[in-house]
Design brief:
The protein is an alpha+beta fold. The protein folds into two domains: about 160 residues, no CATH class; about 160 residues, 2-Layer Sandwich (Heat Shock Protein 90), CATH 3.30.565. It has nine helices and seven strands, in the order H-H-H-H-H-H-E-H-E-E-H-E-E-H-E-E. It has a five-stranded mixed β-sheet. Strands 1-3 form a two-stranded antiparallel sheet. Strand 4 and strand 5 form a beta hairpin. Helix 4 crosses helix 5, helix 6 packs antiparallel against helix 7 and helix 7 runs parallel beside helix 8. The radius of gyration is 30 Å and the shape is elongated. It starts with a helix and ends with a strand.
């Protein structure tokens, strides 16, 4: 059975949406475009082989193209609908079923064309030869095309698997960082106000349930904002009136998503490097808005130019940037700038609904 493994290798282990389908989505996008282009090129090749370049028959090209398109588009539609059903079947059987579907549709189109010739062909007698020829002509390019689409899909599966592994590695680094800083917060309260420290522990338990037990790396933006509000309420218990937060949340769209724990580290930096170092405290401004098809989140906090924490490795900020790029591509950015008395951080990334 070694030849089966070489012809149809097992899929890479992934968990991203429709990543392990046998074929790509043939109803839209690149899959549909590839089918249309390859079909038209094959029709052109068949006519060229038959009539040559000098006596090129445009009428024959129209007839062949029409039949080829009917076969291709009908096959794409059926295979697109069957893709989810083929998900639980081995690759060998999926390939055989897909191939049989295409040949069956080719035979049906050939029969329909012959029947139309009988009806409108003025005495033409039905001949089974045309449907059989259509199946034979379809057999070789259909096999090649299915193999091409399969390899293309497996390459996409591998790329998604590598991306998922990279995202999960980044996520696993930032969650312990969040936990460590939260424990430090509790430790700082135990000596000064044990009762408040107990309330913080209870609030953190609820916060951890949402932030640390979520198995998905992308969560709705509204959940990330709720998590951040919970975090800020805990910091306000520790810092009291010194910490004030102003939220300006616009209409960012119901389907907007963000990697879990992306905004929280930025707010944590705003508290740790800004408010905490100022005896009088200050105001953190959080603005969330959608500009066309992009989400923009801005965090602005006051800074004391005379007192600064050690800059450290900036691991959390770099982690947020890399996770946004992994999910949303190179146009996703995390930018920061400072003025004389404020530090401003902006997250900007594309969203599709």
């Amino acid at each position: 059975m070694a030849w089966k493994e070489k012809l149809f290798p097992p899929p890479a282990p992934v968990s991203l949406y429709e990543a392990d389908y046998f074929l790509p989505d043939l109803c839209r996008g690149e899959g549909l475009l590839a089918i249309v282009v390859i079909t038209e090129l094959l029709a052109l090749l068949l006519v060229l082989a038959q009539s040559g370049l000098v006596g090129f028959d445009w009428l024959a090209l129209g007839n062949v193209s029409m039949m080829a398109m009917w076969i291709s588009l009908a096959s794409a539609l059926v295979l697109c609908k069957c893709n989810r059903w083929l998900l639980g079947i081995s690759y060998l059987y999926s390939a055989l079923i897909s191939y049989a579907v295409v040949l069956s549709i080719a035979f049906a189109v050939g029969v329909a064309a012959e029947w139309m010739m009988v009806v409108y062909g003025f005495g033409h007698v039905f001949d089974i030869t045309l449907p059989l020829e259509t199946v034979l002509i379809t057999a070789i390019p259909a096999g090649i095309l299915l193999r091409y689409l399969f390899i293309q899909q497996q390459l996409r599966v591998q790329q998604r698997a590598e991306l998922q592994s990279r995202i999960e590695a980044l996520q696993s680094r930032i969650r312990p960082h969040f936990l460590f800083n939260s424990m430090n917060m509790i430790a700082s309260l135990i000596g000064s106000d044990a009762e408040k420290a107990e309330r913080v522990v209870e609030n953190l338990a609820d916060l951890f349930r949402r932030a640390l037990s979520d198995s998905h790396t992308l969560i709705p933006l509204r959940e990330e904002l709720a998590l951040c509000r919970s975090y800020i309420s805990i910091e306000q218990m520790r810092l009291g009136d010194r910490l004030e937060v102003k939220w300006e949340v616009g209409d960012y769209g119901a389907g907007a998503q963000i990697p879990c724990l992306s905004l929280q580290p930025i707010l944590e930096n705003a508290v740790y490097h800004g408010i905490q170092l100022m005896s009088e405290g200050g105001l953190i401004e959080v603005k969330v808005k959608r500009i066309k098809e992009r989400i923009s989140i801005t965090v602005k906090n006051p800074i004391n130019p005379r007192i600064r924490h050690n800059k450290g490795s900036k691991m959390s900020m770099d982690n947020v940037r890399r996770r946004l790029e992994a999910h949303f591509g190179p146009t996703a950015t995390v930018k920061s700038r400072s003025t004389d008395d404020h530090y401003i951080t902006t997250l900007d990334y594309p969203q599709t609904w």
